[in-house]
Amino acid sequence: MYSEWASLSAQITANSCGAQCFSVLNKFPASAGREVVVSVVKQLGTNLGITQNAEPSHLVKDEEVKWCMDVICFGLSLPLQEHETIKDCVNVYCEWLTALHPQPRISVPKPICEDANLYARQIINHFHNLFVPRQGESADTIKRQAVLCHRVLRTLQQTAQISQVMDRQTWETLLLFLLAINEILLAPPTVKDDVGDQLCERVLSVLFEVWLLACVRSFPSPSMWKTLQESCAMWRHRVALVDQWNRVNLALTARLLEFCYGPAFPQLKNADEDGQLIPAGMSNDCVAQTWYRFLRMIGNPTALCSPHIISKSSHFVQWALTHEKGAETHQHPCLQQLPQIFLNAMKGISSQVDAFLALPLTSMGAGTELAVARPKCNSILHVFHEWLFEAAHIGGDTWRQNRKKQACEASKRPSSMIMEHRKGSISLSQPNSLNDPQSLPPTLTIDKYESGRAEAIGTLCKIFCAKKTGEEILPVYLARFYMALQQCLKITESRECDETLASILLHSSDLFRLDLDGINVLLPGFIAALEIVLPDKDLKLKTQSLTFNRTELRRSAINILLSIMVLPLHYQSLPIRDLTSETSEKIITFIQLKSRLMNILMNALQVETDAQNTHMLLGGLLLCVQDAVTFEETELGGGNASTAHLSHNSSGGAVQHHEANLLSSACSERSASLVSAGTASLGGQTTATMGAGSGSIRDTASGHDYPSLTISDDMSFEFGQELEGVLPYDNAHALFVRATYLVCHRLISSWKTDLNVSLAALELLSGLARLHIRETDALECKRAVKWICDYICYQCSRPPPAHSKDLHSTIVAAFQCTAAWLMQHPYLLQDKDCLQTVLEVVELGISGTKSQTKGGDIPKFKDEKELKPASMRVRDAAENLLTIILEQVGYFPSECGPESISSLLDEVALMKHCNSMAPATSSSEQAIAKFKYFVTENSTILALLEEPLGNDQDPQPTVTLLIRGPFGRHAWTMQLRHLPRSKSGIKYHAINPGRPIPMNDISQRPECEQKNFPDGVDKVQPCVADYSIPTIEQMREQYGAGTIRDLEAMMENQSIHEKLAWAEADTSADSLSHAQECVPPAVCHEFHAARLFLSHFGFLGFETRNPHNPAESLGTPPQRPLIVLDTKSTAFAADLDRLDKLSARTHDTVYVFYVKSGQTSAQQIIGNLTEEQQSPGLDPHFATMLQTLGWPVQVADHSGWTGFAHNSWSLKGTPEEQLRTGSVSNDPLNFNGSQKVLYWADVCSEIAFVVPTAWNLRHNSDSSDGGSISSADQVSGTSNVWTRGDGDTGLAKTKSRNLSLELSAGKEPVPPTRRKGNVTKPTLLAQAPAKIFLVWLESYEDYLNFPLEDLLAYTRTGEELHTLQLPRAADCHVIFVHSLLSGLLRVKLQGPPGRMSFATPLVDGMVLSRRVVGNLVRQTALNISRRRRLDNDNYQPPHVRRRLKVQDIVQKYKMDLSEAELLAHLFQRAI
User: Fold this and answer.
1) How far separated are the first and last CA of the chain, in Å rounded?
2) Calpha distance 956→87 (Å, rounded)
3) Among 641, 758, 1008, 1059, which is most buried by a count of CB atoms within 10 Å?
4) Please, which residues bridge with residue 1377 across strands?
């Protein structure tokens, strides 16, 4: 940079040597000069005002002043024993230098004041004598010299700061003086505690700070800059040089960023004192010039790795020549600091790179957000690439080859070619015949510089990871970077993790998700590095001095792993080229790396102890299994329903082929042996799937064939052959078995005490349950369910102090996971052991104990047990699982389709099929009047219709029921039949049955005398007992004759009446003598079917309930088995409709947005997807992703959740209209909810995907103005899922619902009670339903400017009931998806901070294939919502809300009837 300018080094040397020759006293003996100095300086010192008041100087002429200065100059060179004299000299000169100040001191001579610059230059040159090191001085004396030097430096710095009269020549003199004293103090080899060592940092800081001042006041000439650069090259063995250089560079960089990138760019935070380094008046152009010149001041930092270069100065040569043992220059002990100096230099460069990228100076690893306005990678590399690339190769193979080549070239040259200028070259490429590694001391071998090398390669990784979307990086930079990485990633035989490897992993988290050209050539090297770091519990470190956090290192490694997991199946048989290999060795393909990646993932999960890292690994594991399953289904033909049907149900060769496939893919002999026995038959139940992991089994015979939610790409024939050679334990089935076993085992053994890890593991198990694998292993599925049940048992059995909200959340999640396994594998309930295990756990959840704790125990019936569930939340979850087992397993989806688990029939629909109802009548009030309504168990409403539905031809006692319970609405029709339907049509009563003719003979009734005792009774001898019965005479005596006569009269009258009755019967027409032929009775058309049903099903038993029954302990009063409802109220129909509008499943909404590159406003984003047509320029993969999220449904015909409260869960049109499905391949992407939405549901949850347009904003504003959404029920909070209360009483319980046990000392656990009363506290309403956004980004950096707050207006569902419940931007979860050029998708998660914010399977930074994105996004959205519900104390499960609504209806409309009135009510006909 300064090659054409002359250096001023010679002038500095001349000034240094001539300073001591300035004084004439040097001509005299030293003693004479000392006496003159002592007498003169002492007199001058008394006039300065230090010990007495200052007086004007008596020196009025130039000659007088010059003579005195000649004396002082000599005094400054005196031995340090004359400390007081030297001190006076310093004081005089420091006072005289105030002549340059705005207000000089009074003691300054007049000639100096008149020509201050001239005299100041002389004074500055004279000061050189003070800084000359004195040989052989004691440590105390050296400290005194250092104190005086500090005084001079402070004075010079202060003068430079406040002087307004210094001219350019004075500035140059000052700078040359500072260079000279730095040279004389710092150029020699470091000796501990000498004056150079003590003043090192101070003289450098003053030099740099005064130099910065000169850049503002009098910008130094190029010769000065060249001299500074050459001088610094001689001081590089001093640690302070690089430290001060870093300090100044960062201060200049902070100013540079301010005007280059504006105030919006993140400010570089420096120490307060460093912030004052840059003078306030420095212009922007001056800052830029100074910054670049200072940056290049010490030359190439990699020269620090060559002690031969650093020690080439004459000072080191002199030391080597005078050394008693004849050492080399590079063997001086002070050079042992070079590795640390090199590291500090690299850290300084790294800090500047961090500043340009707006990274915090303390950042390590991933997770830090870069500034949007950051410079391009090329710009940063233009400045730093030479140093960083060269430093990254230090000690590598390339570096060693270059050194050998340079040594060979140097040996061929004449020796004169090697002799260089005294300052020496600072380039590593300079040949040096002395550069022999064998002669270096052990502390300076090249491996000691590894810390600096690690810093350099880490800085390069940070630069390349800062690449923006669409940004181009020069190929030469990419090539050099890849070469450096490949060199640094080489694994040693000891397989230890060194600093370089750790630095690469810490700073390369984003490397494989940035569309870097050719980055995949590094894949084998990175996989080898991950095999070192992740699988081992105790990381083998090359040195124990590594300062990084091991958890952070593993987290960064996991981030890299998550970004490369899908590459093998994405690129398949594509070869990976080796950068260094020139010969055609065996080429590695992507698919061959799959087994290594799977092993890394499994082993890492097995040893990981950090919760966040485990969470990430679990997400990656489900991604791998999901991707493998979907890949085999879509690209290997596994998803073809006809193929699956053939392999499961055909005989002969097809079954043999199926079994052979299973055996080849099993990962163990045990799995293989099970396949032929049970898997084929069990798998036959799932002949058609709706897509990988879609969550429900489709019956091909059903009318609900929704489109498959998977993407199928073409597969090359070569890859099919390649796949056959892959290790057998990497296919989908083997991964499923390994993942299930590993996660279940770790869940039981290690993860059960951590909430987030337990939830993530259970979410993964739920995801695995939904996978449809051709070779489903029944035993593995059964074992998984058993493990989950054991987990629930363990959690419930923990001691009372451990029972907390978090513990119960894990139990609830485990029940939900069990439900998922049973729904997807219904054959498990056919297994006796599995069924017993599940039902025992359900019993444990509901009652708190098992009936049989051990196999041989006597069962304890539920009437004998006391209900003490772990908590009400656990009990609700267990009830839900029990209902799913009894009602849904094997039957979902029903004929109504997955959009409803309830019947689509209500009173109006039923009455349309009733003959007594006028066809035109469809009023709900009129239809309800035809029904009788009863409530049983205070939770189920029975609506009974006694009229047959168009079935008069075969009149039977018929009753139609609508059962509204906590788990939905169900319709049943029952008939009382004495014969089966197959025989009920045969008539058994013939016209002439052929009976015999009756006999009309009147029989004679014989007369007989009644005897009370046998005839021979009188012959028996009486005994005492016979006299115990009194005789008639005794009775007459005792009771009187009148009483006896009355009794005799009554007996006589009775005898007469009986004789008359017999006589009348003999003469009547019904007597046997007048009997007629038997005629069958007329067929009865009038039945009290409701009475018969209630009687037969035991609802009319009015026995008194036991008040000590444990069922009463939950606070419900003893009730009758049946309660009659009064349906005459006009509000009854509305309340019934509100009950029907309460879904029995959870419901969520995901809002999908498309963001084009650079868009930051809500209007622009909404405009990308219009209502009329699709906006041009959208990524076609976006439409493909939408199709995999859910099924398109017509809102007008949809009976499930639509994303809007006002039109969800309502009956619309005829069943034929509800069941129709349409093709969406040619439809525009108009899923804004006005006509269509994307919908998905399983047995427990519903989710709607809405793509908002401008219509949503208009609809939301119309709804809020008209108030159509805010019904009376919603205002009252009954349908609010985020509050808990049943509305019967106004008393509020202070005890939280999720806490089940009193933890006070000495108290037994008490059964939990449900919170009573309406919850109206604002604090309990503060948590709003989760808002989940799915955002497709064309440019990844746009996530930083996503207008979340503005888009909330487009995402109203109608459930926002309270102002405190309005969602905030800070509470929203956003899933950003960015499409890479490779066809893969990068995920970015954003959400509120919290313990349970982020759910799996998606993990921040994960890279997905398009074939699984819809499935994983849907699972993540569902899991986010479930976690949010688990974390909310006031959340009510759907069946609890329905139960509370039923109880509310009971309180409003119940009729207090006695038993007789209730029976009478049954005989009354409905209207």
Assistant:
1) 105
2) 127
3) 758
4) 1336, 1387
Q: Residue 559 and residue 553: Cα distance in Å, rounded?
A: 10
Q: Are 71 and 36 in contact (CB under 8 A)?
A: yes
- Is-cis flag, bond preceding 1401, omega within 30? yes
Query: DSSP letter string over 80-107?
Result: TT-HHHHHHHHHHHHHHGGGGSSS--TT
Compute CA 1315 distance to the chain's CA centroid, rounded to the nearest angstrom: 32
Please state the pTM of the whole predicted model. Answer: 0.80
Q: When comparing pLDDT for 811 and 451, which is higher?
A: 811
DSSP string computed for 1390-1431: E---STT---SS--TT-EE-TTTHHHHHHHHHHHHHHHHHHT
Kind and range of the H or E run holding 943: strand 940-945
> Taking 50 as the threshold, does the pLDDT of residue 1303 lie above it?
no
Question: Is the Cβ–Cβ distance between 693 and 709 less than 8 Å?
Answer: no
**Percentage with pLDDT > 90 across the chain:** 24
What is the Cα gyration radius of the chain? 48
Distance CA 238, CA 300 (A): 16
Amino acid identity for residue 716 in this structure = S
Q: What is the pLDDT of residues 1368-1381, one digit of tens each?
A: 888 889 999 999 99
Q: Coil, strand or helix: which one is 1377?
A: strand
Q: Report the share of the chain in percent with pLDDT over 70.
A: 75
DSSP for 1155-1171, written as a single string = E-TT--SHHHHHHTB-S
List Cβ neighbours of 535 (8 Å cut-off, separation of 6 or more): 599, 600, 603, 604, 607
Does 1220 score more than 70 pLDDT? no
What proportions of the chain, in percent to the nearest 5, are helix, strand and coil? 50, 5, 40
Q: Indicate whether 1116 pLDDT > 90.
A: no
Contact 785, 838 (CB under 8 A): yes
pLDDT in tens, 827-860: 999 999 999 999 999 999 998 888 877 766 777 8
Residue 376 half-sphere exposure, CB side, CA atoms within 13 Å? 10
With contact defined as beta carbons under 8 Å apart, do 1144 and 1208 qualify? no
768-793: buried (b, 16+ CB within 10 Å) or exposed (e) per residue? bbbbbbbbbbbbbbbbbbbbbbbbbb
Residues 6+ apart with CB under 8 A from 983: none
CA atoms within 13 A on the CB side of 636: 21
The answer to whether residues 1410 and 1382 touch, using CB atoms and an 8 Å cutoff, is no
By the 8 A CB rule, do 1320 and 1352 touch? no
Q: Are residues 620 and 563 in contact, defined by beta-carbon separation less than 8 angstroms?
A: no
Q: Are 1288 and 1454 in contact (CB under 8 A)?
A: no
- CA geometry: angle 1224, 1225, 1231, nearest 5 deg: 45
Residue listed under structure tokens 């439809």: 1227
Any idea how long the chain is? 1471
Q: Is the peptide bond before 893 cis (omega within 30 degrees of 0)?
A: yes
User: In sequence order, what DSSP letters do the residues of 744-799 get, joined into one string?
Assistant: HHHHHHTSTT-HHHHHHHHHHHHHHHH---TT--HHHHHHHHHHHHHHHHHHHTS-
Question: Can you tell me the mean pLDDT for 1174-1189?
Answer: 84
- Residue 1374: beta bridge partners? 1333, 1390
Is the separation of the CB atoms in 870 and 838 below 8 Å? no
CA 1146 vs CA 811, 1095, 1248, 1402: distances in Å: 18, 36, 11, 21
